[in-house]
């Protein structure tokens, strides 16, 4: 496909091949994590991805993986090291699909062709149920309490979860909260202890040597810092993987931004009106923001070109805010995003900015009005 105007019609689109591989890996990870011994056949998407990548490799005179097993090994390598040219696949050379045998954030973004919270909330049955129930009970605080719990405590001791559910805001959603968590997996346990990460509140998992521990959240602000240890016998819950990806990781930036703005002494609301946007600041002529935690500016741009959020008519300004983690990991993230998505350039109704720029803008308005 690369640069060749006369690509034969049978030649697969690298973007679709990679998306299919990523989806297949996510399905495969789901099956192996469910605790049942894995049985053949592999998920259909893995086989289809193998077929497509084989065709691409032939066309490029590159070596194709000989089997799904080899394909899964290849998925551990950064795309830049692949012998197959994947130009057009929206993947960065330094990204891989698997790390330590687990799907990466890039894999989630590529495989589900979504990666943002709104999309997931609309499509995820549990999150829809939470939204419907809180709305029916006219309990926006319950909705906010649910989101905050998932962000602050992706891992939680059984006894502590029971205590949290006594909170009236959360009690309304007790069934849904319980469905959001699964038992910590056996591989998280060593010496009868389950260890947590202070950086993100998730689990730290043992490496093969059982002596080193790693945080499996790629966007953890302090990966591997020791948090509380829980005796495995007392029971520890872990947030389901898709919720960790779509709620916890982007949510840390949302809470941090809301905290910073709250300190300026202006009204700030998280997920107001049942998630009309992520953050709303000021009561008069409000500013609204959607916080995005996509790893890749190119993939986020594609998403924003397809669908931008609806700005409430009373909002004075609207922003897409890129979290600190993403801006740090990707120099020129905001510039690349604006280049690939003209709809969020300065002068448009919605403008893409970094977390720091957003807070600075709020600070200026506060100072101007003081
Ligand atoms: Zn962590």
What's this model, at a glance?
This protein is an alpha+beta fold. The protein is 45% helix and 15% strand. The chain has 3 domains: 14-112, no CATH class; 117-241, no CATH class; 244-369, Trna Endonuclease, Chain: A, domain 1.
Sequence-ordered SSE layout with sheet pairings:
Blueprint: H1 14-33, H2 44-59, H3 68-74, E1 98-99, E2 102-103, H4 105-112, H5 117-123, H6 125-136, H7 140-152, E3 155-157, H8 158-164, H9 168-171, H10 174-180, E4 181-183, E5 189-190, E6 193-197, E7 203-206, E8 213-215, E9 226-231, E10 236-239, H11 241-262, E11 268-270, H12 272-275, E12 279-281, E13 287-292, H13 297-306, E14 317-322, H14 324-329, H15 333-340, E15 350-354, H16 355-369
Parallel strand pairs: 13-14, 14-15
Antiparallel strand pairs: 1-2, 3-10, 4-10, 5-6, 6-7, 6-9, 7-8, 11-12, 12-13
């Amino acid at each position: 496909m690369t640069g060749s105007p006369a690509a034969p019609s049978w030649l697969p689109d690298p973007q679709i091949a990679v998306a299919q591989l990523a989806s297949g890996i996510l399905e495969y990870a789901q099956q192996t994590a469910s605790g049942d011994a894995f049985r053949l056949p592999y998920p259909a998407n893995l086989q289809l991805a193998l077929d497509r990548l084989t065709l691409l490799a032939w066309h490029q005179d590159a070596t194709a993986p000989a089997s799904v097993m080899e394909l899964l090994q290849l998925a551990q390598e950064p795309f830049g090291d692949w012998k197959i040219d994947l130009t057009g696949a929206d993947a960065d050379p330094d990204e891989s699909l698997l790390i330590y045998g687990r799907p990466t954030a890039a894999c989630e973004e590529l495989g589900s062709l979504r990666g943002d919270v709104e999309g997931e909330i609309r499509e995820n049955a549990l999150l829809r149920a939470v939204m419907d129930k809180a709305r029916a009970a006219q309990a926006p605080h319950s909705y906010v309490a649910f989101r905050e719990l998932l962000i602050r405590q992706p891992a939680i001791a059984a006894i502590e979860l029971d205590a949290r559910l006594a909170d009236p805001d959360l009690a309304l959603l007790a069934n849904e909260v319980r469905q959001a968590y699964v038992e910590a997996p056996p591989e998280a346990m060593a010496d009868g202890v389950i260890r947590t990460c202070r950086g993100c509140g998730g689990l730290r998992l043992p490496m093969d040597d059982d002596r080193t521990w790693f945080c499996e959240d790629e966007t953890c602000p302090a990966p591997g810092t020791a948090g509380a240890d829980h005796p495995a016998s007392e029971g520890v819950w872990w947030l389901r993987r898709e919720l960790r990806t779509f709620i916890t990781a982007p949510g840390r930036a949302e809470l941090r931004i809301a905290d910073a703005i709250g300190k300026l002494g202006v009204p700030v609301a998280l997920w107001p009106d049942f998630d009309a946007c992520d953050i709303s600041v000021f009561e008069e002529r409000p500013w609204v923001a959607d916080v995005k935690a996509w790893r890749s500016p190119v993939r986020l741009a594609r998403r924003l070109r397809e669908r931008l959020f609806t700005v409430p008519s009373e909002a004075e300004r609207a922003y897409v805010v890129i979290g600190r983690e993403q801006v740090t990991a990707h120099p020129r993230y905001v510039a690349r995003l604006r280049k690939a998505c003209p709809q969020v350039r300065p002068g448009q109704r919605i403008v893409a900015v970094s977390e720091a720029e957003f807070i600075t803008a709020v600070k200026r308005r506060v100072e101007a009005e003081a």
